[in-house]
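Final paragraph of the annual report: two paired records, presented back to back.
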Amino acid sequence: MDGKASYVRLVSGAFALLLSYAAAPAYAACQRADVVVYGGTPGGIAAAIQAARLKKSVILLEPTLHVGGMLSSGLTKTDASPRKNVYGGIATEFLNKAKAHYGTPDPIRIYFESKWAESTFNAMLTSAKVKVELQQRVLKATRVSKALTEITMLSGKAYCGTVFVDASYEGDLTLKSGAETIVGRESRAKYGESAAGVQKLKRPEVEGKAILVDPYVIAGNRNSGLLPGVIDVGQKPLGSADTSMMAFNYRLCVTEEAGNRIPFTRPADYDPLRYETTARFLQALKAAGKGVDAAHFLGRGMTVNGKLDVNSTRYFSTNVWHIGYDYTTGTEAKREEIRAKVRNHITGLMWFAQTDPRVPANVRQYMTKFGYCADEFKDNGGIPYQMYVRQARRLVGQFVLTQNNLAKKTTYNDTIGLGFYPMDEHGMIRTILSGFIADESRESIGVGPYQIPYRAMLPKTSQVTNLIVPVALSASHAAFTSVRVEPTFMVLGQAAGAAAALAPGGRVSEVNVNKLRSTLSAAGQILKF
């Protein structure tokens, strides 16, 4: 009986194994290219185009159905430098196309439509002969010694390359490659940065005077629980490291053009409690004699063709706080759950703003004039495709760019481009201070044009030898709050593409820096302000 039982178990096990093979994705032969770029963000697109223009075969892998990242998902006020001669190369090529298309008179602040951005990026990729593969989300990475050889996708497809570029916002390929990464904020002491770590809590103010907003579901009753969006951490030690991250949102595109407007509607899961903090802020402003207008909800982001790029405002925000760490470290299922939460918060906020009696009547009436743009994101109900992941994990590489480098304008022998944007940190923590709501976030810090070294995109040579990371690059949290804008990502992406094309045998640390810099200069990149 024992022998028979063993035989039955053996046969059953073999049958189960065959079934598991049948159920698993059928992994195709590895598609090969000289350069494989993961992430169809503006940085990834610039990397792919530059490598292709240097006669390399390139595959661009995008996890979603649409390339363009935030620029084709609502962020159409581009955060471009307020000074000339900061961005060049492919970033300026794209912005000049927008200027020509829309006849924009402003030579610096150039706005456009998301649908135009996606179409233009696709045309630029086609012209460069970049092979684009959509719906390709990385599952695992394979290394031989310290070199990436193959990445396998959730779809079952596999891609092999000589050099890999991780241009995703989340840095997923970087993590799976085995390179060192960080999620969250370093301490103030880590790199000697004044803007690092936990900041001082501050209550909301009106004309310099703090206003008191009760944080409890039943005002004054601690036992009733905290309102949505408020956490009970209080003032943490100033300058200490933590896993807090900037708030995320979607950059809505809205219009009041009657022929192109999808009216705001009540979401199926609408819960007024989600907006109780907003209602109480409104009441506090009214008590302080401060008026409220629709800009508190929609901002003042007029772009082109009657469209607004809706970003967060301070107290009536499309932002959702305290989700960044769970999103960054979570599974794809967890990430989609968080995306849905953010979408529901924003669509519900639009409904709240035009229907809740605690919103001033003039604002409610004004809000009814607006709706989502029917000609944008047509396959997504007018909602942008890409959630605004302001930061996720970051590489800890051969050089860590810090606040001090930005502020002191450090120069480098391997400078590959410039950055220019204030160190702009969106909401980090909303909590309780002495019984009332207080926010932990710092003011923007101007840093002016600064150089970025090639080494900030490279993993340590002891970890990975053929990966370049232009988006989730090696920067402290404080420095990243400046680097994180799309034109800078395009500058970094173009440098990554050039380096990938020039890397001998794929060894990115052995790129001839003088040759890299001359190649970038010839392509229009600006290396010195």
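The closing record of the year follows.
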Amino acid sequence: MPAVVSSRLAVVQFNATVGDLAGNAKRIADLAREAHARGARCVITPELSLTGYPPEDLLLRPAFMQACDEALRACAESLADLPGLQVVVGHPQAVDALGDVRTRSLAVQRRVNAASVLRQGRVVATYAKRELPNYQVFDERRYFVSGRDAGLGPVVVDVDGLRLGLLICEDAWFDEPAAAAKAAGAQALAVINASPFHLGKAGEREARMAERTRATGLPLVYAHLVGGQDEVVFDGASFAVDAQGRVQARAASFAEELLLVDVTADGAVAGSVAPGPSLEAQAWGALVTGVRDYLGKNGFPGAIIGLSGGIDSALVLAVAVDALGADKVRAVMMPSPYTADISWIDARDMARRLGVQYDEISITPMFEAFKASLAAEFAGLPEDTTEENIQARCRGVLLMALSNKTGRIVLTTGNKSEMATGYCTLYGDMAGGFAVIKDVAKTLVYRLAAWRNGQGTAPVIPERIITRPPSAELRPDQTDQDSLPPYEVLDAILQRYMEEDQGIEYIVAAGYPRTDVERVTRLIRINEYKRRQAPVGIRITHRSFGKDWRYPITSKFRA
């Protein structure tokens, strides 16, 4: 009986930086050399690994496309001395360089989302993505034409006798591209991906790829990007499934890794299997990755956080320290006449536990100065949210001044529940450069705080910060629930209305009080203008207040 063909593949799970073509190409080449030294004969990199993902409107610039072509050629030439090695690289490609285009729109005739095979110093084959996602954060039809419309068919690579069919991300979620690869002779599938993270996405990917392998009878290797890019993060967790749909190899989440996978022509797969993280660990990994890469890739020397003694700023401080290190994080407590003594005590305690620079700057003098300047205008009028917002804006001015002077970026501390309902102040607590927990609902804030305290040898967030009733402390004896429904109710309504697109009547029928449903949905609608002015923030759900949410500010629709 003839021996079963077996090939060693290497998945290069690395953190690409958008636009750093030379840096990304060098990283690919260096990791390819390492993989070759460890016996791999085919190296698989993520989707658009050469450019980073998503390059967005950089793709519309001819100079960028030309630079991509040059970087791809240079990468191929740098690997010419590695005998028997093939490297699959994700990159954009001008269509007219590959074949006929049969579409009518000139706007989509210029480029495809491609995977090219590099061998012996040159490009020997190029596959073009066939299924172009245009939902959630994806906008690929703005930039790419499908491989079908470009007249480009399947690509199958011979790797030491194993015939490997190439697919790109969304292709593997549909039947036709994989079936076409199998019809072209593929004995296994390699899928290159840049699939933005949201909670639970890793399990969803594995389940869908298992369906694909069972449908085709072919094993599948899934190469995935890792790292942060503006508001999206990529969790890595590359994997491989055998022909029966069982996961037989998995890389770590939120970490770079070179994953070696042995694949045989009869559908077997072998490799190391990293454990899948819990939901809280996923969220924490995404937040830490998002902060680390936003600051690191954009050259900020550190972060400044307004520390209030409350749960939100405490969580952001803990994330920032895990992402950047204590030496790069500064916490500033800015008490007002309404700040409780326990807020001072808890803020000092947490700063001490984490070892960050901590300062206290009272806003009372400037708050009183503002009130004095406006006394004639406000004569005879009662105090209301105007005075509350002045306090928040005093803090915003101080934090932005410190940011301007030191170059450190202000991390804002508003959560998703607050952003949804407008429980935040323009040019006040919304002032800053990066919104760390913008997509973290208040109930999840508490879960993450408790989870983080369970890691390591000692809690980093004082217990009283977690257990005391949340308050903005902008007037005497204030709590959040004075103005909002209980967070358990608010967040459930928010999830149904905003994330799942359920209508008001549907939510009421599910058992939620009509007054709460109408109140929360009204707050979501009327505060769109605030969210449009908020800083970019990390996306961890399948629908965030960012690229996923494109509602008009001016609208009379109610449902």
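Residues 385-406 form the longest helix (22 residues). This concludes the annual technical report; the extension proposal builds directly on these records.
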